[in-house]
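User: Predict the structure for this protein chain, please.
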Amino acid sequence: MTGKRSYNIMALQRGLRLLHLFATAEQGLPATLVAKLSGLPVSTVHRFLINLESAGFLSCDTTGTYHLGVACVSLGQAVQGQMDIRRLSLPHLQELNHKTRETVHLIVRHALSAVYLEKLDSPEPLRIYSRIGAAVPLHCTAVGKVLLAYLPETELEKTLNELKLRRFTENTVGSIQELYAHLRRVRKDGYACDLEEHEPHIRCIAAPIWDHSGAVNASLSVTCPAVRLATARIRHLAPLIRDAGLRISKELGYEPSRLGFHKPPVSPRQARLSMERRRATR
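Assistant: Here is the predicted structure, written as structure tokens:
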């Protein structure tokens, strides 16, 4: 079978269609008008509106009129931010692709994964396979380790508690302690490596991209077959990738001198003590 599978979830489709009605309704819509525009019974529309409101996609004023909610604003800002970073990054990604002759990725974090936002292929006959929109794990990829390494302490602790450290190869990190060691190295060096930790015969170097607030929600990488990325070449390529990340960061409004340096991630012992203190106060 070829092509994409079609999963038509009727309730979800109806909810999304109702949500779209509010895009052009500057004054909002009452449930009765939503029912008229959608052709659905008022009772059905009311159930959808209540659910959309509870999820933050709609808000309801004292007159019973519904408006787009803060969740829509957050999604819109996220989309805008991703579009901006893609546009601003592209010249730097193209330069890195030209200099290294290897596959270059732009990645953003989504929940417990890293998602490919842009990809420039290597011109070499032997190249790696990846696709825009694909998600990869955080704990065993260079781009993922970058995104973890620069998280604030409390968010890092929460994220690591939720991660499942699945082993993909014999080189995949097998414990939180080992992962912490990797993250401390990322902070020290300013870049991360994936030495066949996610896929056999594939190696990768990644560096952070800071936004205007000093947060790292994106990274860029050079990925290639292991036969073309020996230790000596990692030392050569890492500064190029770091510099490209810093140039993109400055385009996004990052000012290193104003925001200062980032602290290393907490140690396993610090994380354990912090978790114990939190449990004791519950």
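The CA atoms of residues 58 and 69 lie 4 Å apart.
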